[in-house]
Design a protein that fits this description.
Family: Belongs to the phosphoglycerate mutase family. BPG-dependent PGAM subfamily.
Function: Catalyzes the interconversion of 2-phosphoglycerate and 3-phosphoglycerate.
CATH class: Alpha Beta
Pathway: Carbohydrate degradation; glycolysis; pyruvate from D-glyceraldehyde 3-phosphate: step 3/5
Structural class: alpha/beta
Radius of gyration: 16 Å
Oligomer: single chain
Order of helices and strands: EHHEHEHHHEHHEE
Distance between the termini: 28 Å
Protein name: 2,3-bisphosphoglycerate-dependent phosphoglycerate mutase
GO molecular function: phosphoglycerate mutase activity
């Protein structure tokens, strides 16, 4: 019984590079992002992972990251489920704005609160708590059963949708999750116990 869950944040996007708030906007990967996705696939191949199923968001940067990883793994025929529940946090009125320009408009402290707090959303957008409110039920009903059936499952998603998952899996408090960063293109590997608790967690860094 494997019960393996692998989480991967998409590779660098064009808007990551330009320092823009992205959210539900849909920019593509940069060349660096493509290499990060391929590197994630290499790391997983070196570890001998063979996936039973995959999940990703409705946004192309996560979907392309998953496709590139699976190409490296030689597993392009894998069943993939795409769902809006795994989308990045919606940044609302901040979407598409340069982060430095936003700081000039609203102030450093206010933008920091919107970006890093647990339950304060930006105007018209979602907090991390709001993001978790859609990610957690989807994970419990759709992803977790595949893992608990003994599967090896990969989820390619976004910084904040994955932070919500890591918060639940690692049992982090709202204060603890604020400082948790998810690196682009770095696989996080969980092995779960029969009661769904975490038996082992590894981050496949270089």
């Amino acid at each position: 019984m494997s019960r393996i869950l692998v989480l991967v944040r998409h590779g660098q996007s064009e808007w990551n590079l330009k320092n823009l708030f992205t959210g539900w906007k849909d920019p593509d990967l940069t060349e660096k992002g493509v290499e990060e996705a391929k590197s994630a696939g290499h790391k997983l191949k070196d570890e001998g992972f063979v996936f039973d199923t995959a999940f990703t968001s409705e946004l192309s940067r996560a979907q392309r990251t998953l496709d590139l990883m699976l190409e490296e793994l030689g597993q392009t025929g894998l069943a993939i489920t795409r769902d809006v529940a795994l989308n990045e946090r919606d940044y609302g009125d901040l979407s598409g704005l340069n982060k430095d320009d936003a700081r000039e408009k609203w102030g450093e402290e206010q933008v920091h609160v919107w970006r890093r707090s647990y339950d304060t959303p930006p105007p018209g957008g979602e907090s991390l708590k709001d993001t978790g409110a859609r990610v957690w039920p989807y994970f419990i009903h759709d992803v977790l059963p595949k893992v608990m059936a003994g599967g090896t499952v990969v989820v390619a998603a976004h910084g904040n949708s994955l932070r919500a998952l890591v918060m639940a899996l690692d049992g982090l408090t709202p204060d603890e999750i604020v400082g948790e960063e998810i690196a682009t293109g770095v696989p996080i590997v969980y092995r779960l116990n029969a009661d769904t608790t975490v038996a082992e967690k590894r981050v496949l860094k270089d």
